[in-house]
Amino acid sequence: MPLSNPITEPQIPPPIARDAEFQAADAAHVAAPNPHPQYQSILPVSIVEQRVNAPAQISLLANTWFSLGILNNLNSGNSESLFAMSLYIQYVISGVTQLYWQYSGACLISPVWWKAGGAQLVKYIDMEGHNSVDFIVSFRLGIDGQGNRMVEIYPQLSLSACLIRATFVRLF
After folding, report:
1. Which of 8, 92, 145, 146 could covalently link to 114 via disulfide, CB atoms 3.0 to 4.6 Å apart?
2. DSSP one-letter string for 112-153
3. CA atoms of 32 and 28, how far apart (whole Å)
4. Rounded-to-integer distance, Cα 105 and Cα 123, Å
């Protein structure tokens, strides 16, 4: 049957979805949490975030290890895990906390559940500075116990009167 312009309803074969059917199917697809389960997602199924803050305003000496605090319950010990770790340093000037982070950097880590001994893995974090020189902070997880690890940093330069926050986000 020849088509006329515009196409009318009787000219559309029955298996072809109409506007309302397409819109409903499209909305359901967009709203689905994982509409393509055959493809592995690069996004985390559930994000677990944990922050380790230095206990108070501190000063750091260059080339010296400093403990920020304990990272609890890394994983169950029988599953793999990958964490994104971000490190932020904020100055306190004359008792006033600055409104922005002076330095920031990040790395990926895949720690074992329980580090019983041996050398500790050191990661190097390139820290970007707001208005000063960029530098490197070494980072490691200390040997503490099953599932709990001490977060330690080793800055390349001295920092005075600052707040430090390390954020760990479990990617899987």
Report:
1. 146
2. -S---SSPPPEEEEEEEESSS--EEEEEEE---BTTBEEEEE
3. 6
4. 12
- 3-state SS class at 15: coil
Dihedrals phi, psi of 24, to nearest 5 degrees: -65, -45
Q: Which of 168, 153, 162 is nearest to 51 (CA)?
A: 168
Terminus-to-terminus CA distance in the chain, angstroms?
56
Are the beta carbons of 139 and 156 closer than 8 angstroms?
A: no
DSSP for residue 24:
H
Quote the CA–CA distance of 125 and 132 in Å, as a whole number. 16
- Tokens representing 155 are 């800055």
Full-prediction pTM beyond 0.70?
A: no
135 neighbors 113 (Cβ within 8 angstroms): no
- Spell out the domains of the chain, with CATH numbers in brackets: 48-170 (2.60.120)
